[in-house]
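Possible regression after last week's pipeline update?

I re-ran a chain I had predicted before the update to compare outputs. Posting the input and the new output here so someone can diff against the archived version. Not blocking, just want to make sure nothing changed silently.
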Amino acid sequence: MWAALRATIETFRSEKLRFFLTVSGIIVGVGSLVIMASFLEVGQNILQETSAQATGDDVITVSNDWRQMNEHPDVRRLDQRDQDALAASTLLSEGTRVTATYGMTNRKAVYKTKEYEPFTIGVGAEAFEVYKLRIARGRLFSAEDYAGSPRVVIVGALALDGKVEVGDPLRVQGRPYTVIGVLEEKADMGPGGPWSWNQRLMFPERTYRLDFDATRRPTNIVVKVALPVGFDGVVKDFMLASQTIVDNVLMRNRTVKTYELEGVSSDDSTEMLILDTIRALLYLTTIFSMVVGGINIMNIMLVTVVERTREIGLRRALGATRGLILQQFLAETLMITLVGAVIGVVGALGVLAVGSWALTEWVTEWPFWVEPWSVVTGVLFSSVIGLGFGVYPAWRASRLDPVEALRSD
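New output (post-update):
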C-alpha cells in the first residue's frame, strides 16, 4: 500500500494536470454528494419552518364540531374558559400566543351610499401578530379600543372596492363606525374571495360582541405556536405534539370531544414523495459523476500499463507473480481514487462553509452542517467504483509476457 501511495504521489508531482483530470469525476462526485446531502438536510428544515409560517402550519385553529353538537345538544361549546385555559397552559412552548375570533359572518354595510355585504370578524389583540397582518394606513386597535367598546373598524386592503380611507364613516347593520386603519394587501393562502383578509372588516372583540353577539363565545380559538429558541428538529413533528397538548387541555372538562383541530396534517405522503424524488435525482447525478470518474481512471491506468511495460517485464523477470502485478495496479488505482475522494470531501467542506456564510449573510440563517453518512458513503462508493474500473487495466498488466515486455521501448 505504501508503494502504491508513493507511486500516486510521484504521478501527481510529475503530471499534475493529468492527475487532476483523472480524478476530476471522483472529486466532483464525492464533493457533490457531501454538499447536496448537507444542503438538502438543512434546507428541508428551513423550508418546513418557512412554509409553516407562510401557510399557517404553525397555527392551530380550534372550532366547534357541529356534527357532535347536533348529536349531543347538551354538550359544551367553545367559550372563554377554553381560551383562558390554553393561554395559561405551561405545557405549550414559551412565547405561544392564544387569541380568538368572533362572528366571521357577512353583514350588510353602507359606505358612501353604496351597499355591500362584507365578511365581518371580531379579533383580539394577538390576531394581528398571529395572522401576520400589517397596517398600510392608519393604526391598529389600541388597548383603549379593547378595554372599551368604541365603534371603530379596520378594513382589508380590497374591502368595499378598496376605496376606503382612514377617518371615513361606515355603517354596518345600521350602526355607525369610523375607519381607523387599512391593512396591507395580504397574499391569499386559502379560498380567497370574500373569505380573504383583504375583504374583511375587523372590529375589537368587545365591540363586536356587544354590537353583534353578546354570548362571549368565540367562533374559533387560535393558537400560534412558538418554536423553542435553538430548535433544530422537524417543525411538523413539533406542531403535531403541540396539537396533542391543545387537545388534552380542552378535554380536561369535557366528556365528549365537541371541537375540531385544524393545522398541520400528519399525512405527509405527498410532501415526502416530492422530497424523495428530488433526493433521488440529485444523488443519481453524483453517482453518474463517480462512474465517469471511474471510466477516466480506467483509461489512464490503461495508458499507465503501456508506459510501464518494461517495468512490469523487469518485475516479472525478478520473480513477481501475475497476482502481485494485479495487486500492485489495483492498489495504485485504489490510492488514486482515495486521494480524489479526500480532495472532494475537503473541497465540499470549503464550499459548505462559504455557502453557509453567504446564505446567512444575504438570505436567511443557514447553519454549517455536514452529514457524516455522506462523507463515509462518498469515500466507500468511489473506492468501489475505482476498484471496479481498475480491474481490467490491472488484469492487462498481469497478463503481459515478461520477454515481450522487456523488449518494448
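Follow-up from reviewer: compared with the archived run. Residues 322-362 form the longest helix (41 residues). Marking as no regression found.
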